[in-house]
Amino acid sequence: MMSPTTTYHAPRSTRKAFTLTEMLVVMAGLGFCMCFGTFLIVTTLKAENTAEAAADRVSRRQDLARQFRDDVARAEIAPDKLGDLAAGPACLILRMPNNATVIYQWQKEQNVLDRIQRIGENESHKPFRVGPKETSIEFVRPANGLGVCTLRIGEPAGNGPARRSELSAAVGGNLR
Question: Whole-angstrom Cα distance, residue 47 to residue 53?
């Protein structure tokens, strides 16, 4: 039996807490996992934005190609002049049936290719954003106004190589 002066000590049970070192190791591991997860999310968002911008550029380019080819194919002739306006590398004039005119003008300062349609006294504008800043546009037209018209689009080298596109159509292609 136990004497009154002897104290009873219970056997040590399993430990009830973690050491500071164990807590620091776990926190460092969680911090690493959070940093890696954040890196993955940011990388995924950048890739998504890049893909979206490329898809938007392709879509705008397809709209321009469709419109340009349709206009040139419906045109009767691509004249040198229309009043004070002269055709050249930054301007293409197309005379359409029924006294209509379509003019493509490159507005370098605004980085916009402007499609102007004139029917009698009425005039409508349809701007095309063709690429990033420093994009170049050049029209190549046949000497006599009949033949193949080409729209050359040059994009500067940004994060990749420089791009060059050409859109061509025959004047009056649908009428011949």
Answer: 10
